Amino acid sequence: MEGWDPSTKSTLTQIPLLTIKAGPRDGAAWTQRLKEEYKALIAYTSMNKSKDNDWFRISAANPEGTRWKGKCWYVHNLLKYEFDLQFDIPVTYPATAPELELPELDGKTEKMYRGGKICLTVHFKPLWAKNCPRFGIAHALCLGLAPWLAAEIPVLVDSGMIKHKDDVATSSES
Amino acid sequence: MEVELKELLSDLHSLKKSISDPSHLALIEKMHLHAENIATLEKSGTIRRSKVKDMSAEVVDSNPYSRLMALQRMGIVNNYERIREFSVAIVGIGGVGSVAAEMLTRCGIGRLLLYDYDKVELANMNRLFFRPEQVGMTKTDAAVQTLSEINPDVVLESYTLNITTVEGFDTFMSSLTNKSFRPTKSGSGVDLVLSCVDNYEARMVVNQACNELNQTWMESGVSEDAVSGHIQLLIPGETACFACVPPLVVASGIDERTLKREGVCAASLPTTMGVVAGLLVQNTLKYLLKFGQVSRYLGYNALKDYFPTMEMKPNSQCSNAACLERQKEYILAKPTRDAAAKAKADIEAVSPAENPVHADNEWNISVVDDEEVDGSDVKNSGICVLPEGIVHELPVADDYPKAPVTETVGPADDLEELRRQLEALNAD
Ligand SMILES: [Zn+2]
């Protein structure tokens, strides 16, 4: 696993791996896969909380579990920056990873495709392809979104592209 | 509008004559020029050519198809007019797809189905086709606007959706199977699907749809560093599908480690995209109108002007279930195929081709043969021998022991219970 920092690596190895190769169009097999997704997300969220490194909330936005919505946040200079997070499970999942979207940041950074889809590092897709179908939503968040926030949020804050919500509130009041 | 503009121009003219203060003259001249420009724009906006019922080969300046029909007279194409029967679906109306759509429109294609979910942005203006005044429109709507002006004979259908989502995919599939344009056509409702998307995920979705529908398609791509690209023909069951082998890219020859990726997702050049769109539509015309050789894979390295070619056989271990079904069908149909090939060869033996093909290599230009590239640099992927300069973009999935399917029904294996557990964690 070249190109990943040690803490991402160690976290990743603690998220349960999935076994069922099924996508949203695979009926009962998808339901089985969805159960594995939940187990991995539950384990990852619990682990983050126990390490005092809670950084996202995610829930299925429809009964089929093909659309997901939630929040993610990042602390920079002791201030917490929170963003809406959403993504669809693609029809070719898990051969292809979900494209994680932060719609509020659309157009604010070069490291983003249109529609607020985050631009992943050159290391992400090869690792995902190699580990199909063992990686799931939890792994995508750990390997894709967490490093992206760590790299981009400080830059966006320091360049003034995003403001802390308290600053926005005070400036609009004055 | 036209009358109003005429009035304005004549008023300005009389004002210019009657004016006593010469210092205002320059300003009036300027106003006059502006009014004239508007009049010209107005005129060009209203002139739209009417539809043409039959493609004529008559060489007159009012015939939009004369230079295309000349291909038939010269013996390059047997029956050019057949182009009006064909439907082509273009997925992704970006730097490659929009140009491909314009080329096919100018060629007089019968019907185009356009798919994209994006909007036109100023950041797209380094590419061809879209115009600054179209910023904010959906790419599909803007394309229909321009294409219908260029050639009103083409039937245009636009689909503003994301094919990778479950709903988008359903609409994509049903639009491809709709046969109302040519009810007698066998198979799906389109003759060819062109993938002009910019990411692996969407390509895998086009691959899924085409494998399920047994639909021939062509893949195209431009690298993120904008200096290489490729086109590829995919015939389900006969050639490798997009999932059979890890995706290939034409190596730019730049050392990846020296490539500065920080800060940007992708670069783009109108030249590389135009070249790839040209190669793609050229291959499309050859495939539809049955002339020349249809390329299976053609790469383009812009830095070295190197065009590698190759063929890829399907992978019997492909992870795509629909691909495996198509492979089985293809093998079963072998006797029929052989008989048809023999019958064709017999006919050709009796009556030699009317238009003799130019002797290959008339001028003794030495070309790199496919067979010549099996040197030391070749990496064998198992399915195909990769020519020099083509590399896999992604690895193959590792083998892993398949866990036995155990149906344990308990509180920990109930979907609702798991959902509740995650929500409980989310709540605090
Ligand atoms: Zn395949």
TrEMBL record, chain A:
<dbReference type="GO" id="GO:0034976">
    <property type="term" value="P:response to endoplasmic reticulum stress"/>
</dbReference>
<comment type="function">
    <text>E2-like enzyme which forms an intermediate with UFM1 via a thioester linkage.</text>
</comment>
<dbReference type="InterPro" id="IPR014806">
    <property type="entry name" value="Ufc1"/>
</dbReference>
<dbReference type="GO" id="GO:0061657">
    <property type="term" value="F:UFM1 conjugating enzyme activity"/>
</dbReference>
<dbReference type="Pfam" id="PF08694">
    <property type="entry name" value="UFC1"/>
</dbReference>
<keyword id="KW-0833">Ubl conjugation pathway</keyword>
<comment type="similarity">
    <text>Belongs to the ubiquitin-conjugating enzyme family. UFC1 subfamily.</text>
</comment>
<dbReference type="GO" id="GO:0071569">
    <property type="term" value="P:protein ufmylation"/>
</dbReference>
<protein>
    <recommendedName>
        <fullName>Ubiquitin-fold modifier-conjugating enzyme 1</fullName>
    </recommendedName>
</protein>
<dbReference type="GO" id="GO:0061709">
    <property type="term" value="P:reticulophagy"/>
</dbReference>
<dbReference type="InterPro" id="IPR016135">
    <property type="entry name" value="UBQ-conjugating_enzyme/RWD"/>
</dbReference>
<feature type="active site" description="Glycyl thioester intermediate">
    <location>
        <position position="119"/>
    </location>
</feature>
<dbReference type="GO" id="GO:0071568">
    <property type="term" value="F:UFM1 transferase activity"/>
</dbReference>
Automatic annotation (TrEMBL), chain B:
<dbReference type="GO" id="GO:0005524">
    <property type="term" value="F:ATP binding"/>
</dbReference>
<dbReference type="InterPro" id="IPR035985">
    <property type="entry name" value="Ubiquitin-activating_enz"/>
</dbReference>
<dbReference type="GO" id="GO:0071566">
    <property type="term" value="F:UFM1 activating enzyme activity"/>
</dbReference>
<comment type="similarity">
    <text>Belongs to the ubiquitin-activating E1 family. UBA5 subfamily.</text>
</comment>
<feature type="domain" description="THIF-type NAD/FAD binding fold">
    <location>
        <begin position="65"/>
        <end position="319"/>
    </location>
</feature>
<dbReference type="GO" id="GO:0005737">
    <property type="term" value="C:cytoplasm"/>
</dbReference>
<keyword id="KW-0479">Metal-binding</keyword>
<protein>
    <recommendedName>
        <fullName>Ubiquitin-like modifier-activating enzyme 5</fullName>
    </recommendedName>
</protein>
<dbReference type="InterPro" id="IPR029752">
    <property type="entry name" value="D-isomer_DH_CS1"/>
</dbReference>
<dbReference type="Pfam" id="PF00899">
    <property type="entry name" value="ThiF"/>
</dbReference>
<keyword id="KW-0067">ATP-binding</keyword>
<keyword id="KW-0833">Ubl conjugation pathway</keyword>
<dbReference type="GO" id="GO:0046872">
    <property type="term" value="F:metal ion binding"/>
</dbReference>
<dbReference type="GO" id="GO:0005829">
    <property type="term" value="C:cytosol"/>
</dbReference>
<keyword id="KW-0862">Zinc</keyword>
<dbReference type="InterPro" id="IPR000594">
    <property type="entry name" value="ThiF_NAD_FAD-bd"/>
</dbReference>
<keyword id="KW-0547">Nucleotide-binding</keyword>
<dbReference type="InterPro" id="IPR045886">
    <property type="entry name" value="ThiF/MoeB/HesA"/>
</dbReference>
<dbReference type="GO" id="GO:0071569">
    <property type="term" value="P:protein ufmylation"/>
</dbReference>
